[in-house]
Hints:
Layout: H1 4-9, H2 22-27, E1 30-34, E2 38-44, H3 58-74, E3 80-91, E4 100-110, E5 114-123, E6 128-142
Antiparallel strand pairs: 1-2, 2-4, 3-6, 4-5, 5-6
Amino acid sequence: MSSPLQLFTNLIDQKLDKTPSAAGNWLSGVLKEISEKHIKVHYLVRPEMCNPAKILHGGVASLMLDDAIGMANFVTGTEFLMTSINLNVDFLASAQIGETLELTANLVRSGSNLNHWEAVIKKESGKIVAKASSNMIKTHIKMNDLKL
């Protein structure tokens, strides 16, 4: 069985549409970098990701942040699957249809039961669209029991 890090390393520069996350597959991001403490994903803002004002919906931005943090946490080498227990998001600028966004997330602290992450979504100009922090908690599900 491949390690979770090997699984995702093989997906660098590919569309993320066949991952274990159905919601993340809908986002169709492109994985650019991944390690045990970092991830970078690019997303193209599509019409179905937008609110009636035709700008990126805050719920979709939150999904991008939560899903990327989840992917990155998946490869940290933990024995047990972890799940988010909170996601704090600040929306700082809008993003329009057709824009490519870069999401980066970094592991700030790894503990025995909790991992703390921080993430940022930026436009190509460098302007911050949203930033987030999230805590992931250990579940009872062993990573080796997952069929990947």
